[in-house]
Structure formats: structure tokens, C-alpha cells
Amino acid sequence: MSTNTSCLDEVRTWLAGYVTQPHDDIGRPGAICPFVEPSMRVDALTLREWPVTTECTVTELLSVIDRMAEAFLTSAHNGGNAALHAVVVALPGLVPERHRLLDEAHATAKTGLVRRGLMLGQFHPTCDERAARNERFPVSRSPLPLLAIRHMAFHDVLFLSDDREWFDCYRDRFGHRFENAHVHDPLFVRLYAQANDRWPLADRAVAPS
């Protein structure tokens, strides 16, 4: 992990004291994000600080996200498991009244990133993103505005089952595990089955040759 500023020290404290810890409201055993501690342990999680202007716009944040994606895809990482590779970017300069722009930028960028097999998360003090297993719990609140990017993972059916294009990208990568009955989490099975019934593979549009 990078080690340079007090801003990043605050991020490390949040990761260690919240994200890697269990929580009564998460709706399942284990850490808020089970991925982060193993990633940190093998030094596959990179922290960066990218200041933005106090007049930051969604367009500026989308530019940050584009830079993040390129930096993520071209950066080396320690550890042999690419699934543990992640980049977390703190955004000093993003004033509280503009934190909501992170939510807008995330929604705008999501489809393009999913097509590339990437997942983006936004975090800030008033983020209203809810836990997948407990819709009353605003799980993505952090002490300062952040963005995080990683490769799409098997558990992302939790976040990709309510849009056809997202689900197609997910099914292309992980559908075989469901078809071969290798999935035992009832929520994963239900979400996949519902989306698969809603958007059968046979109905996917075929591009003209």
C-alpha cells in the first residue's frame, strides 16, 4: 500500500476499523467487505490521493474514474491473485455539498466499467448505498470521499442482477458456476435465477455480421 499523507492514514484507519470488521447490520457473518483484509495482507491494495477542485463537477469526477481504470489495469500488484488487486483513491478538495456528485458519477460510469470487467464503489460521509442483505444499512459511508476499483468478482451478482447489460457481463464470466450447481449461497442463487429468467441467454441480441 502507498504510504504518504495524513489523508491516506485516515483511509487506512477506516479500512482497518470498519471495512475489515464484522458489523451487526451487514446481514451476514464476517467483515463489511471480506475482500479487503486479504488484499491488504498481500499488499495488493493501493491507496492514492488525487485532489480535485472545490468546484468539482460530475465531468471532472468521470475523468478521475477514467484515470483510475487505466491506472488499475496498467499497474503491477503484489500477490498472485489478480482478484485481490484494488485501487482506492481519496479525493481531497471535494467539498461536502458536492459529495453527492460521486453517486452521480458512479451511476454514469458503471456500465462502461462493467463491460470491461471492472467494479467501482463510491464512499462518502452521507452515501446512501445500502447493504445487499439489509436495505436499512447505509454501508458505504466513509469519513472522506473515496472511489475504489477492482476486478469483477463472483459475489457481484449482488450488484449486477437488476440491469440486462450488467447481468450479461456477469453471466459471461460466472454463469457456468450457477449452471453447474456449484453455488450454495441462497441469495446468489435466487438473484441469478431471477435475472436469468428475466433475460434468457437465447434472447440476447446478436450483432449483424
What can you see in these coordinates?
Residues 9-182 form the DUF6875 domain. It holds the Pfam family DUF6875. It comes from Actinophytocola oryzae. This is DUF6875 domain-containing protein. The protein has 209 residues and is of the alpha+beta class. The chain folds into two domains: 6-151, no CATH class; 164-201, no CATH class. Helices cover 41% and strands 14% of the residues. It has seven helices and six strands. The strands form two sheets. A four-stranded mixed beta sheet has the order 1-2-6-3. A two-stranded antiparallel sheet has the order 4-5. Strand 1 (45-49), helix 3 (58-74) and strand 2 form a beta-alpha-beta unit. Helix 3 crosses helix 4 and helix 6 (164-179) crosses helix 7. The mean pLDDT is 93.
What distinguishing features does this structure have?
209 residues, alpha+beta, 2 domains, four-stranded mixed β-sheet, two-stranded antiparallel ribbon, 6 strands, globular, DUF6875, DUF6875 domain-containing protein
Radius of gyration, taken over Cα atoms and rounded to an integer in Å:
18 Å
The total of beta strands comes to: 6
Question: What amount of the residues lies in strands?
Answer: 5-15%
Overall SS class: alpha+beta
Number of helices: 7
Biggest sheet descriptor: 4 strands, mixed
Net shape: globular
- Domain module tally: 2
What's the N-to-C terminus distance? 46 Å
**Spatial strand sequence of the major β-sheet:** 1-2-6-3
Q: Which regions contain 5 or more consecutive residues with pLDDT less than 50?
A: none
Quaternary status of these chains? single chain
Helix % is 40-55%
Pattern of helices and strands:
HHEHEHEEEEHHH
